[in-house]
Amino acid sequence: MNHKNLIVPPEKKIRLKDYDPAYTGKYTAREEADKKLAEDLRRLNEMQNTLYAQDTYALLVIFQAMDAAGKDGAVKHVMSGVNPQGCQVYSFKAPSSEELDHDYLWRAMKALPERGRIGIFNRSYYEETLVVRVHPQILANQRVPAEEKNKKKIWRRRFEDINNFERYLSRNGIVVVKFFLNVSKEEQKKRFMERIDTPEKNWKFSATDVKERGHWDEYMHAYEEVFNHTSTEWAPWYIIPADNKWFTRAAVADIIVSKLKSLDLKYPTLSKERMDELLQAKEMLEKEL
Length: 289
Known about the structure:
alpha/beta
């Protein structure tokens, strides 16, 4: 799969309208993508074992999207073959009173994956540059110094802080991969209607989803700003077409596998002393009746 068509080039300006939500790359049929996904899930399971054994790196996968873009489904399908003990998922909702008493990266820092594990953020600290930007009243109620609420500088400073935070993570062995699931406004409407018309999907729908849809253009502008200021060499953004869920899942899995492969993961090499201990243990077991 050609990732160049999906990645946001660092230090370059992009426009979301240039990224087709219905793009499926070289795949002309779902069966082809599903076959690739199955192979990548197998490889992901193997790589996770090595990641855990090596205990040097961690992988942090961030999902951002408009409602009904398929974040939950992508997490479910891509991580279906992963050992639950080596994977953790956090969904970030509106901050609690305790969280508001800390800096906005505090709760994300607490949820970072340990070395050897895969961490998934279903939404993330990027909400502080998205929903907070679209709804200024949220910023007005945040407990930050008044001089920091200057709209002319706050977004630039938050982008700078996030870039520095992600560089810090990268330098400490936490590899950051960021996905934006790019669903079209038409497809979102279709999925909303399906949730309303299908009883077993009613629970997925909230009236606030439609209200947020009314801010579509504002969100697209906010996302463009995020991509143009925070897609870096150490933590790039990938804009994943989301109108076809089967392609979304295949693309996400392919990128994660490629990222893990680039780490050149290896099982630890045991010292001579440790090998001697294993041979002694083997000898003792063989002598058992």
